Predict the 3D structure of the following.
Amino acid sequence: MRLDIITLFPELLESPFSASIVKRAIESKLVEIYFHNPRNFSHNKFKQVDDYQYGGGPGMVMMIEPIAKCIKKLQSERNYDEVIYLTPDGETLKQSIANKLSNKTNLILLCGHYKGVDQRIRDHFITQEISIGDFVLSGGELAAAVLCDSIVRLLPGVLGDESSALTDSFQDGVLAPPIYTRPAKYDDMNVPEILLSGNTAKIEEWREEKSIELTKKLRPDLLQD
């Protein structure tokens, strides 16, 4: 998979991609991640990429030309499955979205800044808009890092045990059950006996019951969906 991220501040993404699972995926050549700065596509001698909005109002807007040129250049080099804009008013990121995107080959991610991007970019270049929650960040870089991590960890060969991702919360529409490890007893706190029984069928039944119980308690909306 190849991820091309259009960002004014690539340095904000260097740290999240230089450690842990994403780093290993890059080193194993399971994913390629590239940064593209719109300033390099600005015709302005000062590399300006933002301007005042038509109609007045506070805040600056990212201009259409640098972003459009960047996207067009990338698209001239290869076919992209999606051009994604990270924005608070996009579709809320869910596991099902990450699952679908993990099956793609080439993705462009656009990180907004200031008041956002010229609407013409959204109307004519963007194919999917994604939000990581109902709040506003200073820019789309952190959202892009979250999206990339949620996708990359699903790629075959990235996790040591590929079945691990299949048992995560939300994969089956419910939260994951409680998990325990050694020691079986710590002070007065014990691991449930069923998990020590070795009875695989009973353990799976317990886990399913606990998943539904936990979902009812914490996220009943998932069961409604």
The chain has a mean pLDDT of 94. Strands lie at 2-6, 32-36, 50-52, 60-62, 82-92, 106-111, 128-131, 185-186, 189-190. The chain has two domains: 2-152, 167-224.
